[in-house]
Design a protein that fits this description.
about 40% helix; alpha/beta; eight-stranded parallel barrel; 8 helices; about 250 residues
C-alpha cells in the first residue's frame, strides 16, 4: 500500500496549481479528477481534444498517477462513448484504475448491472479496471447492494470511501465483506453528522482498516481526499493525514 492524494483536495485550483501544492506537501502519487463539474481535466475535453488532455495528464512533475476519478454528465450511449475515450486516456497514460459513480437511489437494479457490465467490457479492452465509488445518495451507499452488483458483474471493483458508510447513517454500516472488491480507498475523518471533520475528531479507524486491507492482500492507494473548510488549516489537515497513514503503513 502507498499514500496518494486526490486532486480534489484542491478542486478550486487549476490542475497545474493543484499539482504544485501536492508536490509541496511531499506526495509522490496522486489520483487525478476527470470531472465535468471540476476545474481540472473534464471528460468532454478528453473527447474534444484527446492529445491536449493526454499532455495535461502526463505533466505531473514526476508524480505517479494512481488512478482517475471520473464524473461524466451524460447517460446511456453517450455516457459509454465518453467513458470509452477516458479508458483510452488511461491506457495511454498507463493508469489501471478508473473510479466511477453508481446510479442514484431509485435507479433500477437490472439497469445498473447492465451499465456496469458494458463499462467493464469497454475497460478490459484497454487493460483498465473499473470501481464504483461508495457515495451517499447512490446505490453504492448500501454495502449489500454493492455486494450483489459486484457479484453480478465480473471484474467490477469498489472504490471504497468509508466516510459514506458513516455519514447520514443511523448506524455505522459494516463494509468488511466488500474488501475483496476494493481497488482504491479514499480517506478523511468523519462522523455520522459531518462527512468531513478534523483528523482525530471523527470515528474513522485507519489502523483497523489498513490491517483488514493487508489481510486481503491490498497493495494499491490510500487516497487522501480532504476538501477545504472554513477556519480550518487545510494544508495542515492534508499533511496530518499523510503522515498518519505513512506511520501506520510502516508500523
Amino acid at each position: 500500500m502507498f499514500v496518494a492524494a486526490s486532486t480534489n483536495c484542491f478542486r478550486e485550483l487549476a490542475l497545474e496549481d493543484c499539482i504544485e501544492k501536492l508536490v509541496d506537501l511531499q506526495f509522490s502519487s496522486i489520483e487525478m479528477s476527470i470531472d465535468e463539474n471540476g476545474n481540472h481535466v473534464r471528460p468532454s475535453e478528453v473527447v474534444a481534444d484527446f492529445e491536449k488532455s493526454l499532455n495535461r495528464c502526463i505533466a505531473t512533475r514526476r508524480m505517479n498517477v494512481a488512478g482517475y476519478n471520473l464524473v461524466i454528465n451524460a447517460e446511456g450511449a453517450e455516457y459509454l462513448s465518453i467513458f470509452s475515450e477516458c479508458c483510452k486516456l488511461a491506457k495511454a497514460t498507463r493508469v489501471v484504475s478508473l473510479t466511477v459513480q453508481s446510479g442514484e437511489h431509485g435507479t433500477p437494479f437490472n439497469e445498473e448491472v447492465e451499465r456496469f457490465k458494458s463499462m467493464v467490457k469497454i475497460a478490459e479492452t484497454c487493460g483498465v479496471r473499473v470501481g464504483m465509488r461508495s457515495q451517499t445518495g447512490h446505490l453504492s451507499a448500501d454495502p449489500d447492494t454493492v455486494s450483489v452488483i459486484c457479484g453480478h458483474v465480473k471484474g467490477l471493483g469498489l472504490s471504497l470511501d468509508p466516510s459514506h458508510y458513516i455519514f447520514k447513517q443511523d448506524r455505522e454500516l459494516n463494509y468488511e465483506k466488500l474488501l475483496e472488491y476494493v481497488q482504491t480507498v479514499y480517506l478523511r475523518d468523519s462522523t455520522k453528522d459531518q462527512l468531513q471533520v478534523r483528523i482525530g475528531q471523527g470515528i474513522i479507524d485507519y489502523g483497523k482498516l489498513i490491517n483488514l486491507l493487508r489481510k486481503q492482500g491490498y497493495e494499491r492507494a490510500l487516497v487522501v481526499d480532504i476538501g477545504r473548510q472554513p477556519d480550518i488549516d487545510h494544508l495542515g489537515e492534508i499533511r496530518k493525514l499523510r503522515l498518519l497513514l505513512e506511520s501506520l503503513l510502516i508500523g
